[in-house]
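Title: Comparing notes on inverse folding

I've been comparing how different people in this forum approach sequence design from structure. To keep things fair, I'm posting one structure and asking everyone to reply with a full sequence. Here's the target:
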């Protein structure tokens, strides 16, 4: 019985430390993405002025201002997305009224 208890304790200790390591790794993510943008992506990378604008108009503006953007995705705010990075992709998050609710950036 003591052997099973010690195995459970060890399991929880390992799980806790693994979660801590994963949290540290995630916190480094935005800095790495910013470096990638700085060194690999060309053209305009963010459009804060488009918050509140209709998403279809925002898509046209983004494609006009950065011809390297070939993949503009219109998604409902809160939709799940992949965490991969692409210099030619911008995701437009809109509300049910069709307005941009989050700053569009190259992702």
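Reply #1:
Here's my take.
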């Amino acid at each position: 019985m003591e052997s099973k208890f010690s195995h459970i304790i060890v399991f929880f200790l390992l799980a806790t430390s693994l979660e801590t390591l994963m949290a540290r790794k995630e916190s480094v993510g935005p800095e790495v993405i910013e470096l990638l943008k700085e060194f690999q992506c060309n053209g305009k990378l963010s459009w804060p002025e488009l918050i509140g604008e209709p998403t279809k108009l925002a898509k046209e503006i983004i494609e006009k201002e950065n011809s390297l953007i070939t993949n503009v995705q219109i998604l409902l705010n809160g939709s799940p997305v992949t965490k991969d990075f692409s210099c030619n992709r911008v995701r437009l998050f809109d509300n049910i009224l069709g307005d941009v609710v989050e700053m569009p950036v190259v992702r």
